[in-house]
From TrEMBL:
<feature type="region of interest" description="Disordered">
    <location>
        <begin position="36"/>
        <end position="66"/>
    </location>
</feature>
<dbReference type="GO" id="GO:0005524">
    <property type="term" value="F:ATP binding"/>
</dbReference>
<dbReference type="InterPro" id="IPR001623">
    <property type="entry name" value="DnaJ_domain"/>
</dbReference>
<dbReference type="InterPro" id="IPR036410">
    <property type="entry name" value="HSP_DnaJ_Cys-rich_dom_sf"/>
</dbReference>
<feature type="binding site">
    <location>
        <position position="187"/>
    </location>
    <ligand>
        <name>Zn(2+) 2</name>
    </ligand>
</feature>
<keyword id="KW-0346">Stress response</keyword>
<dbReference type="GO" id="GO:0006260">
    <property type="term" value="P:DNA replication"/>
</dbReference>
<dbReference type="GO" id="GO:0009408">
    <property type="term" value="P:response to heat"/>
</dbReference>
<feature type="repeat" description="CXXCXGXG motif">
    <location>
        <begin position="170"/>
        <end position="177"/>
    </location>
</feature>
<feature type="compositionally biased region" description="Basic and acidic residues">
    <location>
        <begin position="47"/>
        <end position="56"/>
    </location>
</feature>
<feature type="binding site">
    <location>
        <position position="223"/>
    </location>
    <ligand>
        <name>Zn(2+) 1</name>
    </ligand>
</feature>
<feature type="binding site">
    <location>
        <position position="170"/>
    </location>
    <ligand>
        <name>Zn(2+) 1</name>
    </ligand>
</feature>
<keyword id="KW-0235">DNA replication</keyword>
<feature type="repeat" description="CXXCXGXG motif">
    <location>
        <begin position="209"/>
        <end position="216"/>
    </location>
</feature>
<comment type="function">
    <text>Participates actively in the response to hyperosmotic and heat shock by preventing the aggregation of stress-denatured proteins and by disaggregating proteins, also in an autonomous, DnaK-independent fashion. Unfolded proteins bind initially to DnaJ; upon interaction with the DnaJ-bound protein, DnaK hydrolyzes its bound ATP, resulting in the formation of a stable complex. GrpE releases ADP from DnaK; ATP binding to DnaK triggers the release of the substrate protein, thus completing the reaction cycle.</text>
</comment>
<dbReference type="GO" id="GO:0042026">
    <property type="term" value="P:protein refolding"/>
</dbReference>
<dbReference type="InterPro" id="IPR008971">
    <property type="entry name" value="HSP40/DnaJ_pept-bd"/>
</dbReference>
Length: 387
């Protein structure tokens, strides 16, 4: 049973984190393992490849608060029964409807037939809410990847090539699982529903068809390249369009770009987490850009025109005479352009730069100026701290 397979796995152990680990700890553990185990870093290593798949599956559940809660609740409810206490002693049964069994089957608990079972309770983890055991080919798993962008590319948008090694639709049978020139046929055991029913005492239960394994179809001539699964592991490169204004840590979803589903089922999604490098000049505040420009005292006192950098060139900014070094200037429309949001501005802060040393002539001139200040009655701290 799919549900039993999920619950028998220890996703916390797969990621190497305790059951009470924070979401950030889970995310950090997954990133490290995914980087170390990725097939591109371990070409031809089947052990690393399988471990990479287990880590990705564990992260797909534990990174989702709702799925994680349902997974934790299920493990807590069934306790040690997950390790072999269920499904023991079940008889094979003659057909779609079986008699009472000697043992207790996991499908009885999660079955969605007349008894209802716990499919409603854990539907969000295993199926859609209110549905029983899944019928039909299995949807592909979601994939998680990370990419790093420069500050400028994140602000203006870019296209990033992403190399992915994962289960993909077989190029020979195009995902059907059947040898070219043939087609799957409907399973007569379950009439194509992928589900069979049986009785146990006063209750009736539904479960995936044993003949077609819940797919609803049978393949008489399997594809040689994928052994009838419709899926084969291959490396592909896709172009991921990063929208302008993406922020550090933001996740981008690419529908249908994850693992291929079995026998032509829907593919999973690809989630790309974007990391943005810091810039040596700019910082970001929402959709506004901030930049600090060094100026001298004479430029502040006498006024000047500055050449200020932007993401796509430079602008000239006039500084009036007598400007305070604490003043911030706003250049409209030179910030980040984000979809469905007003374009941000460029905020220019002035930073007074003081020379570390002066020549004798400069020192003499500055001393004369200081005397002019005193003679004119100028006191920079006249209104400071109550003086």
């Amino acid at each position: 049973m799919v549900q039993q397979e999920w619950l028998e796995k220890d996703f916390y152990k797969d990621l190497g984190v305790p059951p009470d680990a924070s979401q950030e700890a889970i995310k950090k553990a997954y990133r490290k393992l995914a980087r170390d185990l990725h097939p591109d870093a371990n070409p031809g290593n089947k052990v690393s490849e399988e471990r990479f798949k287990s880590v990705s599956e564990a992260h797909s559940v534990l990174s989702d608060p709702q799925k994680r809660k349902e997974y934790d609740d299920a493990r807590k409810y069934f306790g040690s029964g997950l390790r072999g206490g269920f499904g023991q002693g079940r008889g094979p049964g003659p057909g779609p409807s079986h008699g009472a069994d000697a043992g207790f089957d996991f499908g009885d608990v999660f079955g969605g037939g007349a008894g209802g079972g716990f499919s409603d309770l854990f539907g969000g983890l295993f199926n859609k809410p209110g549905q029983g055991s899944p019928a039909g080919p299995r949807r592909g798993r979601d994939l998680e990847f990370e990419t790093r962008l420069t500050f400028r590319d994140a602000a203006l948008g870019s296209v990033v090539p992403l190399k992915i090694t994962s289960p993909s639709a077989c190029t020979t049978c195009h995902g059907t699982g059947a040898r070219p020139g043939t087609s799957p046929r409907m399973c007569t055991y379950c009439n194509g529903s992928g589900v069979t029913s049986r009785n146990q005492g006063a209750f009736g239960f539904s479960e995936p068809c044993e003949e077609c394994h819940g797919t609803g179809s049978l393949i008489d001539s399997p594809c040689n390249d994928c052994a009838g699964s419709g899926v084969m592991t291959r490396t592909r490169t896709i172009s991921v369009r990063i929208p302008a204004g993406v922020e550090d840590g933001q996740r981008i979803r690419l529908a249908g770009q994850g693992e291929a589903g079995v026998r032509g089922a829907q593919s999973g999604d690809l989630f790309v987490t974007v990391h943005v490098d810091k810039h040596h000049v700019f910082e970001r505040s929402g959709n506004d850009l901030t930049v600090s420009v060094p100026v001298s005292y004479s430029e502040l006192a006498l006024g000047t025109t500055l050449s200020v950098p932007t993401l796509d060139g430079r602008v000239r900014l006039k500084i009036p005479a007598g400007t305070s070094p604490t003043r911030t200037f706003r250049v409209r429309g030179r910030g980040v352009q984000k979809k469905n949001a007003p374009v941000g501005d460029l905020l220019v802060s002035l930073v007074l730069a003081v020379p570390e040393s002066l020549s004798a002539e400069a020192t003499e001139a500055l001393e004369k100026y200081a005397q002019y200040e005193r003679d004119s009655g100028f006191d920079p701290r006249a209104k400071w701290a109550g003086s």
